[in-house]
Amino acid sequence: MVRNQLLKAEEEVYFMSPIGVRGRMKNPAMTENYFGNAITIGIVTMIVKELLEGGIGKGALEMNKMVGLQTEEKLKSYSRNWIKNPTLTVGGVIGNTFLPSSSPRFDVYGNDFGWGKPVAVRSGAANKKHRKITLFPGVEDGSVDVEVCLSHEILEAMGKDPEFMDAVDE
């Protein structure tokens, strides 16, 4: 996606990722019946050139580091500071930002509304934004369904990108 947006090599791209907090909070632990979101948002910032030269492994390594930094103490410190200076973020995301969402806890294929097991799941029209990535646990154990919303121009460019097409065309 980054390569096919024709961004300048020195531009920054951002990958924002919701990170589950439930398993990170030990003292006190969050109860299973806690109602509400229990997430924090992690952000990885990379220069386009570094990401393209390092490949998906470089991006994944940076994301792994960012997730690993979300410790219980860091989360508690953030909460204490937020209570002193509360802020709300309203609106969209900044420029070259990629934003995944959803949760592996939501068994999307386990829902049966009387028609049987779903054959496919999509997020719906209200959740469509440019560069929005939605991940669901897949229909097969261990698989992941990926839904990506991109402009027509970027999708066309990706379809003409031999390296990308070799990776996804089976």
Q: Which characteristics define this entry?
A:
single chain; 170 residues; alpha/beta; Chloramphenicol Acetyltransferase; five-stranded mixed sheet; 4 helices; 5 strands; 29% helix
Q: How would you characterize the overall build of this protein?
A:
This protein has a single domain, classed as Chloramphenicol acetyltransferase-like domain (Chloramphenicol Acetyltransferase), CATH 3.30.559. The two termini are 19 Å apart. It contains four helices and five strands. The longest helix is centred in the middle third of the chain and has 21 residues, at 48-68. A hairpin with a 6-residue loop joins strand 4 (132-137) and strand 5 (144-149). The chain has a five-stranded mixed beta sheet. The protein has helices at 48-68, 72-84, 152-159, 162-168; strands spanning 12-20, 39-47, 97-101, 132-137, 144-149. It has 170 residues and is an alpha/beta fold. The protein is globular, with a radius of gyration of 18 Å. Keywords: Transferase. Pfam families: Transferase.
CATH homology superfamily name: Chloramphenicol acetyltransferase-like domain
Helix content: 25-40%
As for the CATH topology, it is Chloramphenicol Acetyltransferase
What oligomeric state is this?
Answer: single chain
Strand order of the largest sheet: 2-1-3-4-5
Mean pLDDT: 85
The end-to-end span amounts to 19 Å
Question: What's the architecture in CATH terms?
Answer: 2-Layer Sandwich
Q: Which strand-content bin applies to the residues?
A: 15-25%
Structural class: alpha/beta
Helix-strand string = EEHHEEEHH
Q: With helices defined by DSSP (H or I, 4 residues minimum), what is the helix count?
A: 4
Pfam families: Transferase (PF02458)
Keywords: Transferase
